[in-house]
Design brief:
The structure is a homodimer of 104-residue chains.
Chain A (H helix, E strand, L loop, with lengths): L4 E6 L13 H17 L6 E6 L11 E4 L3 E3 L7 H11 L13
Parallel strand pairs in A: 1-2
Antiparallel strand pairs in A: 1-3, 3-4
InterPro entries (chains A, B): Thioredoxin-like_sf
Organism (chains A, B): Daejeonella lutea
Protein name (chains A, B): (2Fe-2S) ferredoxin
């Protein structure tokens, strides 16, 4: 296992008028925020955040998934990224308030 | 953990002339092949294959990652997909010949 924490951020963009989607713009901004803060905190070895496609949990989007533990976060905003990093990535304490209810 | 097997297939395309990349066309074809064969084999509940961005293992591309176990496959061709599904996804036997050497 190359990554101790591997973070996947949905950037899927559905067409206008389709059901809700995580969104390319929002997903890309989240990915950039993860990368920026992880770099600032020195979390560049053994951890990686990257964009991904649809996780089929669109109604809870924007979605962030952390493996290997398989924790699924929903409705993630830019302001949540620092907490996910400091609590979950650095201290192995998933952020309860962002967990997708039906998966908890 | 929503997925018993969550398969991420790199579709990252670098510009012409840049270092090797997994490639959007090849990655998308791999993703389609996984989806098609998994559907045919009835593996649509608890498993999901989807595209993802760069895993930073470009020299071993095209890359396929299977979580939660964190198995990284390299140089994956369309003809390898059936074996990954039947051996790894269905029988929990990772396909040794496709494992990325430095990560085994």
């Amino acid at each position: 296992m190359i990554y101790k924490k591997h973070i996947f951020i949905c950037t899927n963009q559905r067409p206008e008028g389709a059901r809700v989607s995580c969104g390319e713009e929002h997903g890309s901004a989240l990915t950039a925020e993860f990368k920026k803060l992880m770099k600032e905190k020195g979390l560049t070895v053994g951890m990686r955040a990257q964009r991904t496609g649809c996780c089929e949990l669109c109604e809870y989007g924007p979605i962030v998934v952390v493996y290997p533990e398989g924790v699924f976060y929903g409705k993630v905003q830019l302001s949540d990224v620092n907490e996910i990093i400091s609590e979950h990535l650095q201290n192995d304490r998933p952020v309860d308030r962002l967990l997708i209810p039906k998966l908890s």
